[in-house]
Amino acid sequence: MRFEPRPPNTFQEFIDAYYDRCFRVCPGLKAIAGKWRFEDLCPGLSDFDTRLIFTDDMRVRDWAAASIAVGRVHTELAREFPNWARTREHLPGLNLTRRELTDPVFY
Fold first, then answer.
1. How far is CA 20 from each of CA 4, 9, 17, 44, 73, rounded to the nearest angstrom?
2. Which of 1, 53, 57, 76 can pair with 31 through a Cys bridge, CB separation 3.0 to 4.6 Å?
3. SS3 of residue 38 by DSSP
């Protein structure tokens, strides 16, 4: 059986592009994270499972606007970088405020 060569590791490039673009269109966005450690990501197999961290003053309308903006970023990246389909796979699964992230009961 002949296998395709291992794809290049472009996770850092993807993460940088995703964050930069989301940061430009999402007021209150402070950080991007993934649920895995960088060394656990396997090119061609893993998706990034993006988590976006926002300021604590987010309101309902802010979350709705951020959701629409991130959806647009996701779509733009899908068109521009089809080779990131597996890495990008789906929209961020969870978005948190700083307070939520640091609350041991909540998260």
1. 31, 19, 5, 23, 10
2. 53
3. helix
